[in-house]
UniProtKB/TrEMBL annotation:
Its cofactor is heme. The lineage of its organism: Eukaryota, Metazoa, Chordata, Craniata, Vertebrata. One of its GO terms (biological process) is organic acid metabolic process. InterPro entries: Cyt_P450 (IPR001128), Cyt_P450_CS (IPR017972), Cyt_P450_E_grp-I (IPR002401), Cyt_P450_E_grp-I_CYP2D-like (IPR008069), Cyt_P450_sf (IPR036396), Cytochrome_P450_fam2 (IPR050182). Heme binds at C417. It comes from Microcaecilia unicolor. This is Cytochrome P450 2K6-like.
Length: 472
């Protein structure tokens, strides 16, 4: 784009490094930490620059002010999703996260309103999460304060919240299917974020090399076979007057529209939405929870202040979302954990829906846009010493919670995370539920300096064991 020329004499040319044939600027990047390389380049080229990632010609938006201006003030113009090869293989353009145009609008609207209805239904989201938290606490108690790996159990717990919403049921922890589902999602997301998959997405010629896309599709096949079998079971028992899950609501709508050849309510969209909710809804939330437990373990003075607030406001009662407004300290901690965890540092890519002049630069319709969240959550102009973990930045001198505009872990605008409300409920109820019952300690040898991010599409902390010591 820009073709090296400007479209009018007063239009600025988007700066950027000179690309090489085929690989573009890939030789300048650390493929394991692309978000870091992109932030470093913004220090040279500024908040808007172009980059060639293999055959993808992208525009990077960096820093809170620029990302917000694009996604919020020009929400429509920046709201499309580009075609990304691996997600095209998985979803074929159906579902929500990687679908486009009217398919995306219809699926997003339906999913949001259905999740909201369940929130108000007989078994609210809050109750489903609270129930899951009780099982998690039992599991932690069984560890008797010894170091154990929390990854799989947290992933399984969060998977259960999603299956409870989408299918109306949870799995017991000793059901091998639950651990299989949780590890399938975990492994697949790791592979999706691998350098080999990045190359697969960026340079079509590398498709024929043995990459990670083959094991990814094998996992997706297994995952989707399970989802298909489960929704067919639901179809057999479907009672339109007693809808108990997202799947029931979708199937009822499918039957209502079955005469309409243009209906979006078909099996491909259902499978794709279910796959997305599982993939987008588990690793992100479970990864943030793991960050939280580890950070509290290595910042014991902060952990004990959270526990004091829990004791004062909730005591031994069941934690409820409504407690949150009386708990500014806990609220600040959870915000800082999310900011620091920076779990989707690259964000998902966007695409322009029209030709647009943005901050004096011409960006054509169909341009691949990277609204870099790493550059927002660690923006020096918004957060003092952004690489430090410091919950005080979300508190004023009277200890009241202070909102920070650049707190954007769920992104912003039309494509803002569809599960943000659910994720916030989960983070609050799980954290408070766990800190009410346990004090977390690092295992021997683990200190602040070795609580580091993993690499991948999402950035959970590198696997560390943890000790959960019962408080009473
Ligand atoms: C801490 C937890 C989570 C974080 C940090 C997070 C973050 C994000 C981010 C950064 C995006 C990309 C937004 C954009 O394109 O601008 C996204 C999209 C999405 N997320 Fe989340 N997410 C979380 C949890 C969840 C949960 C629990 C669900 C589902 C139940 C979910 C479902 C989705 C979906 C469906 C999209 C695609 C939205 C669209 O394209 O319209 N996420 N999320």
């Amino acid at each position: 784009f820009n073709n090296g020329t400007d479209r009018s004499s007063n239009m600025k040319i988007i700066p950027g490094p000179r690309p090489l044939p085929i690989i573009g600027n890939l030789h300048m990047m650390d493929l394991r930490k692309i978000h870091k390389s992109l932030v470093e380049m913004s220090e040279i080229y500024g908040p808007i620059y172009r980059i060639h990632l293999g055959n993808i010609k992208a525009v990077v938006l960096s820093g809170y002010e620029t990302v917000k201006d694009a996604l919020v003030n020009h929400a429509d113009e920046f709201s499309e999703r580009p075609v990304v090869q691996i997600f095209e293989d998985i979803h074929h353009g159906f579902g929500i996260a990687f679908s486009r145009g009217n398919n995306w609008k219809t699926m997003r609207r339906f999913t949001l309103s259905t999740l909201r209805d369940f929130g108000m239904g007989k078994r609210s989201l809050e109750e489903r999460i609270a129930e899951e938290c009780r099982f998690l606490i039992q599991y932690f108690e069984l560890q008797k304060g010894e170091p154990f790996n929390v990854s799989l159990v947290l992933n399984s717990t969060v998977t259960n919240v999603i299956t409870s919403v989408v299918f109306g049921s949870r799995f017991d922890y000793d059901n091998p299917l639950l651990f299989r589902l949780a590890s399938l999602v975990n492994e697949t997301l790791k592979l999706i974020g691998s350098p080999k998959t990045l190359l697969y997405n960026m340079v079509p010629a590398f498709r024929f090399l043995p990459g990670d896309h083959k094991p990814i599709m094998k996992n997706i096949y297994e995952l989707q076979s399970f989802l298909r079998k489960t929704f067919l079971d639901h179809l057999q028992k479907l009672d339109r007057d007693d809808q108990r899950s997202f799947t029931d609501a979708f199937l009822v709508r499918q039957q209502q529209e079955k005469e309409d050849p243009n209906s979006y309510f078909h099996d491909n969209n259902l499978i794709s939405v279910l796959t997305t909710l599982l993939m987008a809804g588990t690793e992100t939330t479970a990864g943030t929870l793991r960050w939280g437990l580890l950070l509290m373990a290595v910042y014991p003075e902060i952990q004990s202040k959270v526990q004091e607030e829990i004791e004062r406001v909730i005591g031994t009662a069941q934690p409820r979302i409504e407690h949150r407004k009386q708990m500014p300290y806990t609220d600040a901690i959870i915000h800082e954990i999310q900011r620091f965890a920076n779990i989707v540092p690259l964000n998902l890519p966007h695409e322009t829906t029209v030709d647009i002049t943005f901050k004096g630069y011409f960006i054509p319709k169909g341009t691949y846009i990277i609204p870099l969240l790493e550059s927002v959550l660690r923006d020096k102009t918004q957060f003092e010493k952004p690489n430090e973990f410091d919950p005080q930045r979300f508190l004023d001198t009277d200890g009241k919670f202070v909102k920070q505009e650049a707190f954007m872990p769920f992104s912003a605008g039309r494509r803002i995370c569809l599960g943000a409300t659910l994720a916030k409920m989960e983070l609050f109820l799980f954290f408070v539920g766990l800190f009410q019952k346990f004090t977390f300690h690092p295992p021997p040898g683990v200190t602040r300096t070795n609580v580091l991010p993993d690499t991948g599409f999402t950035t959970p902390p590198q696997s560390q064991k943890i000790c959960a010591v019962p408080r009473f």
